[in-house]
Design goal:
This protein has a single domain, classed as Outer membrane protein transport protein (OMPP1/FadL/TodX) (Porin, Beta Barrel), CATH 2.40.160. 1% of the residues lie in helices and 61% in strands. It is built from 1 helix and 20 strands. The strands form 2 sheets. The protein has a 17-stranded antiparallel β-sheet that branches. It has a 3-stranded mixed β-sheet with strand order 13-14-17, with no helix packed on it.
């Protein structure tokens, strides 16, 4: 079950090796009648001719960043969503070696981050040599990062022997991202004036939109003997089919005195379309073990994601940027690149199911969701980082499944919490001065993420 997740965490969506409550989200055989998504080898155990699954998540998310753009200037983004997530169908084919094929359509709203903040008051941001005392200072900041993914999946599974099964899946993924940051800072110069006073001004806009259509492949293995069940999957990196990016940047600095004799005025602006996009996902290997007991099942899992070296998702073309009268100034693409880098990550999950009644099963599942964000992996400070979240998340699932001859109905509570003390400020309004171009001196601060959701899934066997 997809949820409104975070953009630097692999296991935020509930379809992962540890989403034990979610139908089909397991690596090893758990007796789940909805097994059809994560490990394709488990399709070999599904003997139903056809089935459909649909689900919805009703979810509230909030991200709070302490002193996000200055002391006392917190950033907060909250949203409520109702997300239809998955539809699928299964066809079990009999023969000398039974095998099953399945398809699924999945929507995953990765992140929907939007926030604004303002500082309006008297602050001494200009040099007293020409503007004595505190100035009327107005600064505004807005940011958004919206990512959506839609996938189409085709899988098959074969039972090779009484204890061993193998499966393969191909997934087509459409991913789109829009990220934007806007900042403006204006100070009225304290000089005698009969009319409107001069204004020192700084404005920055960075907006990027990109999408890609890609393929990824997965092979899965399952081994079962008595009450013990093992599973392994290997997922390939993305194979790009088509992609496109668009960039819009605008900088304006007027009447900033970096020294008594040096006044800075600068206009820099560009718009570029049809840019090459190179978004990456690393190789991953997942494993799981399930043990049947007299009262239910115990399940443990893990998945390792390889690291990704510093690279550019979008590299701007050389183009006219800083505006002058000689028309010869070009910008360095390193300063406006849209970049990504990922540290290796291993997540772990634990789940348990309890047979409350013959037709009623309770579920409890826990999992880590470690962030791959790591600023030390970047080779330089230039450019813009693609992700917003910089924190580890921990997930709890509680729920139950009602089984009937023709269908299963599953519902549950989803709780997610994350926290970090290393969230990078984009600007710092309360330390703005001419020496830092009214952008302030930035540092890391604290951020926390919380999400609560209700999940409903219906599995109908035809």
């Amino acid at each position: 079950m997809a949820v409104n997740a975070q953009d630097a965490n692999y296991w935020s969506a509930a379809y992962n090796p540890a989403g034990f409550l979610t139908p089909g989200a397991a690596v090893a055989f758990t007796g789940d009648s909805g097994v059809l998504y994560f490990n394709p080898a488990l399709l070999a155990y599904n003997t139903k001719n056809s089935a459909t699954i649909s689900g919805s998540v009703y979810q509230f998310n909030t991200l709070s960043i302490k002193d996000g753009v200055g002391s006392g200037l917190n950033l907060k983004s909250s949203n409520v969503s109702v997300v239809p997530v998955m539809a699928s169908s299964i066809l079990s084919i009999k023969g000398r070696k039974r095998f099953t094929i399945a398809y699924a359509l999945i929507h995953n709203p990765v992140i929907a981050y939007q926030t604004t903040q303002q500082l309006d008051g008297k602050y001494n941001v200009l040099s007293d040599s020409y503007s004595p005392g505190a100035e009327n200072f107005l600064a505004q900041y807005s940011s958004q990062n919206i990512i959506n993914e839609t996938s189409g999946l085709l899988s098959t599974g074969f039972q090779l022997s009484s204890n061993f099964a193998w499966g393969f899946s191909m997934e087509g993924v459409y991913r789109e991202q829009h990220k934007e940051e806007n900042y403006s800072a204006r100070a009225l110069v304290n000089i005698p004036s009969n009319g409107l006073p001069p204004i020192a001004d700084a404005q920055t806009l960075y907006q990027i939109t990109h999408y890609n259509v890609s393929l990824k492949f997965k092979t899965g293995f399952a081994y079962d003997k008595g009450r013990d069940h093992l599973g392994v999957t290997i997922t390939s990196p993305l194979v790009k089919i088509i992609s496109n990016g668009q960039l819009l940047v605008d900088y304006l600095f007027t009447d900033l005195r970096l020294s008594p004799t040096d006044t800075m005025n600068m206009l820099a602006s560009t718009r570029e379309t049809k840019l090459k996009e190179k978004y990456k996902m690393p190789l991953s290997i997942a494993g799981g073990y399930a043990r049947e007991t007299s009262w239910g099942r115990v399940y443990v899992s893990a998945e390792y994601f390889a690291g990704v070296k510093d690279y550019n998702i979008i590299t701007p073309r050389p183009a006219y940027f800083i505006r002058t009268n000689d028309d010869e100034n070009f910008f360095t693409s390193d300063e406006l690149k849209f970049k990504d880098a990922r540290r290796p990550v291993m997540n772990f999950g634990f789940g348990v199911s309890y047979q409350l009644k013959p037709d009623l099963t309770g579920f409890l599942a826990l999992r880590t969701d470690l962030s791959y964000a790591d600023s030390s992996r970047y080779t330089d400070d230039g450019g813009f980082v693609s992700n917003t979240s910089h924190y580890d998340i921990y997930h709890l699932q509680l729920g139950g499944n009602v089984r009937r001859r023709k269908f299963n109905l599953r519902a549950g509570l989803l709780l997610d919490y994350g926290r970090t003390s290393k969230f990078p400020q984009p600007v710092n309004m309360t330390s703005a001065s001419e020496q830092n171009l009214l952008l302030g001196d930035v540092h890391n601060t604290r951020a926390s993420f919380f999400s609560v959701g209700l999940m409903f899934a219906y599995i109908h066997n035809l």
